[in-house]
């Protein structure tokens, strides 16, 4: 079921007309659907019911407090990569004891904050990090729960910028050295070695790389166990892809079932999932208004009021996201356009060569923008950041106000 759909050729978010939201809250704005978030999160959780598990939503995909609050209310765990994300989880009512802390560069201050908050586990990426966590835990007279992220050297067959499980990537510990590093971790007094972790990349559209990585990690768990270290959980990371155009990734329940099959003979090994994109991407759209249509010598441009600072995926990864009219009932001449923003970069585009029937002042919706949309936005060109709205049935909640131009324009005289 798609909660962003046309009714009488008008785009709706659940029960609310997108044009009405744009009229009230202005553009560009992100609109999220609560029902979609819940449906996607539950797809993971329900599919894993038969096995001990924890779904830890990857906060980096979308850290809006309203979004986190929807997840917290369902009992979700969270995968974080900074102290800032932990603060947001706590502010949104999330349970710190269900938080896993990933990332290669945790600072002492972040480790201290997470230890005091009582998180579930640190996913550790190097020996130097083990030493740092041990040191901070000792100073606080606490024991830090840890997993080690292992790099299984599996090709995720995704965009090179978002592939993380190859030897050439900065993430995790090489498979060959893993047992040795586990022994080292177990020798440190203020660490509790609880689990193992792996994450091979994002936007994976095939199941096989996940299975290959899992099999390698299960093998490793046996080796670690033979070395006298018993692990109680396996964090399989995130990375399940979504449909942006014609990709056919496995559905969350297929993905979870395929992984569960491999651990059926390990009923005490808790599985941790870290999905981000699969929950949020298609739970959000970015709405933008056409400012001008411009005829170039070789191309037609639709200059819109959203830009690469609002949604950087097309510029950064050449990502394709569907762009559709909010009102599909307008009489317009159809042309092929590049949809571009006002930023002073040739790379500032949201879509290229799109067949659209539009005119100035029309509204467009950029689909699949709920993940890695607002969280990767910036103030580049001193542009204000978009508002974020959450639709819940027929109610619309402003879950983050648009930044105000005045705040940017006030300026202070910083020179003596
Ligand atoms: C460690 C870790 N976990 C989870 C995720 C979430 O990934 P995705 O949004 O692809 O599910 C990422 C990002 O790729 C990650 O680096
Ligand atoms: N930001 C990326 C995904 C990176 C995943 C984070 N580990 C995207 O938009 O596709």
Automatic annotation (TrEMBL):
SUPFAM superfamilies: Alanine racemase C-terminal domain-like, PLP-binding barrel. The active site is at residue 344. Residues 35-281 form the Orn/DAP/Arg decarboxylase 2 N-terminal domain. Transmembrane segments: none annotated. It comes from the Bacteria. The keyword Lyase applies. Residues 30-370 form the Orn/DAP/Arg decarboxylase 2 C-terminal domain. GO terms for biological process: lysine biosynthetic process via diaminopimelate. Pathway: Amino-acid biosynthesis; L-lysine biosynthesis via DAP pathway; L-lysine from DL-2,6-diaminopimelate: step 1/1. The keyword Signal does not apply. Its EC number is 4.1.1.20. It catalyses: meso-2,6-diaminopimelate + H(+) = L-lysine + CO2. GO terms for molecular function: diaminopimelate decarboxylase activity; pyridoxal phosphate binding. Substrate binds at residues 277, 313, 317, 345, 372. The modification N6-(pyridoxal phosphate)lysine is found at residue 60. Keywords: Amino-acid biosynthesis, Decarboxylase, Lyase, Lysine biosynthesis, Pyridoxal phosphate. Its cofactor is pyridoxal 5'-phosphate. Pyridoxal 5'-phosphate binds at residues 239, 274-277, 372. HAMAP family: LysA. Specifically catalyzes the decarboxylation of meso-diaminopimelate (meso-DAP) to L-lysine. NCBIfam families: lysA (TIGR01048). Belongs to the Orn/Lys/Arg decarboxylase class-II family. LysA subfamily. Homodimer. This is Diaminopimelate decarboxylase. The gene is lysA.
